[in-house]
Design brief:
- This protein is 29% helix and 24% strand.
- It is α+β, with helices and mostly antiparallel strands.
- An eight-stranded mixed beta sheet has the order 3-5-1-12-9-10-11-20.
- Strand 14, helix 9 and strand 15 form a beta-alpha-beta unit.
- Helix 6 crosses helix 7, helix 10 crosses helix 11 and helix 14 runs parallel beside helix 15.
- 56% of the residues are buried.
- It binds ligand MTE, hypoxanthine and dioxothiomolybdenum(VI) ion (MOS).
- Dioxothiomolybdenum(VI) ion binds next to loops.
Length: 762
Amino acid sequence: MKKSNHDSAHKHVTGEAIYIDDMVEPTGLVHAYLGLSEIAHGKIIEMDLSAVESATGVIGVLTKDSVPGSNDISPTGKNDDPIFAQDINFYGQPIFAVVAKTRAQARYAATLAKIEYEQLPHLTDVLEARKQSYPHVTEPLTLKRGDAPTTLEQAPKRIQGSMRIGGQDHFYLESHIAMAIPGEDDDVLVYSSTQHPSEVQHMVSHALNVPSNAVNVKIRRMGGGFGGKETQSNLFAAVAAIAAKKFNKAVKIRPDRDDDMVATGKRHDFVIDYDVGFDEDGKIEAVHANYAARCGNSADLSGPVTDRALFHADNCYYFPNVLLQSEPLKTNTVSNTAFRGFGGPQGMVGGERIIEEIAYALGRDPLEIRKANFYGTIDRNITPYHQTVDDNIIAKLVDQLEQSSNYQNRRDAVLEFNNKKGIIRKGIALTPVKFGISFTATWYNQAGALVHIYTDGSIHLNHGGTEMGQGLNTKVAQVLADEFQVDLDQIKITATDTEKVPNTSATAASSGSDLNGMAAANAAEQIKERLVTFACKEHKVEKDDVSFALNTVNIGDKSFTFKEFIHQAYMARVQLSAAGFYKTPDIHWDRASGKGRPFYYYAYGASVSEVSIDTLTGEYQVDRTDILHDVGNSLNSEIDKGQIEGGFVQGQGWLTTEELWWDKEGRLRTHAPSTYKIPLASDRPRIFNVELADWSENREMTIKKSKAVGEPPFMLAISVLEALSLAIASENDYKNCPRLDAPATPERVLMTLERLRGERNA
Ligand code: MTE
Ligand code: HPA
Ligand code: MOS
């Protein structure tokens, strides 16, 4: 397990790291700002932009008629995501952009538009959408094994229920931004804060009606993406590029935080209806569940997101008979998109609610119900999508955490504390995670890298992945340092660039280091092979006599510094540059039949959280969290721990304080930190113990046998929700499952307590 700092850690803290808005601005740079709709559904009858155009500093405006190519940036090719809308489908939809000398001038001018609309009825809620037969934004998915309906009829016990799970704003520290610089002919260079430079390249090329080879997209780093910059960057890049070509000036666009929150997509909220059959011991016999998602006004990534909700509905549990259906509903809200876990967290929360229901019905500790239903290792190991779980370590992981966190004694203490019937109540829960690694769109699982060694022995590293804070570049640089046995500072990490590595996938699905690490290793191997062949010939030795030690190359009984050796190779005309490639083996997925092996492997984890709630106000705090997480053979234990801590706290925010709220007009009213509460440093667990399962190693041939870490820890926060639920349940002596929905804001905790008080007195 290596420990190296994130390559930019120091620069992040001192403010020296250069984000797009920090770059030295090109001469004559101008600024664009978006004009947003002020209705949720309707048509534009008349648009008068004369006041906008004549405002101080304004250079010009862009509308749908200014788009030289296709006015669409839909990632799925569904043609349902206009750059500039004519038909309005949500409040805050971009209609036009204004370009001015300063950002303040553009921002002000954007408020001067006079737009006349014909309003149509709108709706923002999933249940309302279902009632009014609003369309699906994409084909629903069904996963099926065995006969769930019949088994449910015959099961010894059966519970039906429903759960609401809220969405989430990404709240990356750096909001969306793009800067475009026009070149000669059709050329344009776009700096875009994006997780998916290749897609930005394609979208800009379609919008400008030029081939992809005219568009170059670059990104050194994002100030956070979290899935929010997988597709949502397309809009800003397209607007900047169109304006740059139209006015032949460098153009930057950076929305205010409020506009970023209103006009770009978020995590999908879900309504999950479940029906579970089980026996007296709490063993599940059948699950039938429906997953309705608020997709917003277009498809975007809602297809794969709602698919992934179904893929994780089982979490760590074997469902002998199962029928799961997704319901990706259209609503008149901003189109929801990728967010850490990509639908998986919502599906998993539903699965854990089912466990809770069984536990309360039988009067047992939910942990016992979990253990009774864990996937087996020899049998009981087929998922609802017919993939065999063949790397299952959840039982061992949970046992270890149960011991190390002293779970049993602490649970006893919590129950005893609550028996005193004080105003403060406590709760504790241990919840597991199993998360599937790979893009379910199989072709996405490929990556490229470009490695040069210069004659002074310094190394230039480029790959298709993007850095958003997760430490990908450090990990990939470590892989190269290891291959060539040189110090990490010999390797120059460079901006992701569509001219260096083409046709890349989004850095997403937690697969950045799996894919790009392997591609970089492949490039290094090619160069090393040439170097070894050269050494053998030059020094008349066998392959086995050549070895790379730290900054040194040993050839027979001679020894050279890496730098000396590289210079020799250059003089002998050895090619010191290579393009690497990797594709994930052994995965396949047939959506129509709902069968396949969509995931290369699973990452596991578990957490125990203990909370205290104030039963008079609903306020609470997380007293302690213990985490044991599986990253296989860690590439970098410090970075991995950072991902686990950050993922957990982000998950905690999602399930507790972060609440999105739309008013009757369809306006998002929680569009700033004043109304949307992300966790503060003071909200983190008071005691926070994070350990890696250091005995775990990936069974598959991933880079150094590591496992992906980006998303899985997010779902460890489910223990906080369930611990809150236990504290609430004490109000009625644990007789009813509190059916606590998410987010469990203090308000919702209080309302749930009130409901239980009502049930107690009934
Ligand atoms: N960590 C930081 N600091 N910032 C981010 O934006 N995004 C998360 C996760 N961790 C994110 C992060 C998401 S949604 C994903 S998919 C992975 O990082 C992507 O990076 P990886 O594949 O290199 O792990
Ligand atoms: N995860 C994240 N992003 C994606 C995926 C996925 O499975 N598929 C397409 N984009
Ligand atoms: Mo992460 S939601 O796959 O960008």
